[in-house]
Design a protein that fits this description.
With 156 residues, this protein is of the alpha+beta class. The protein folds into 2 domains: 20-94, Arc Repressor Mutant, subunit A; 96-156, Dna Ligase, domain 1. The chain is built from 6 helices and 5 strands. The longest helix is centred in the first third of the chain and has 14 residues, at 30-43.
């Protein structure tokens, strides 16, 4: 019967560091992660969810867990660099400061309609009611002009 090697009191090594140690070694600094998130959003044709951002970074050989992504998204939201489209649970680079986000029910397209007067009026009404809101999001669903035209057979 073969004898096992004498015990040294240590568990055998597998050549892999503990998970926590690997995590520390590959941590991306916050400023760099913010830039990576912004770059992923800039390349996207449509708003991205946090998990879609993670997948986009994975395509670039960057592995990031959800918590740091959500922290980066919060920082970028607080800085006004990006905006969250609530109905889509997704993020995109801010294009228009005060707008209505119009989401097409047919094609999923997203348009930003400038509406500074409407946003200012809503903020004033909320302030008058004693409600403080650091972030106001106005979103609407419907059908874009292209989908409406397509449904009518291209007739104008």
């Amino acid at each position: 019967m073969p004898q096992s090697p004498p015990s040294t009191g240590h568990l055998p090594t597998t050549g892999r560091e503990p998970r926590q140690e690997r995590s520390r070694q590959h941590r991306i600094p916050a400023a760099q992660l913010d830039e990576l998130v912004l770059a992923a959003l800039a390349r996207a044709a449509a708003p991205l969810s946090a998990y879609q951002i993670i997948a986009a970074l994975r395509d670039e050989r960057k592995t990031v867990a959800p918590p740091p992504i959500y922290r980066a998204l919060k920082r970028l939201l607080d800085q006004g660099e990006i905006e969250r489209i609530e109905m889509l649970s997704a993020y995109r680079i801010r294009i228009v400061e005060k707008c209505i986000h119009a989401i097409c029910d047919s094609c999923g397209g997203l348009s930003s309609i400038p509406a500074s007067h409407a946003v200012d009026a809503l903020n004033a009404a909320m302030k008058h009611a004693g409600f403080a809101s650091p972030r106001l999001s106005i979103e609407a669903t419907g059908r874009c002009a292209r989908c409406e035209l397509a449904d009518r057979g291209g007739a104008g």
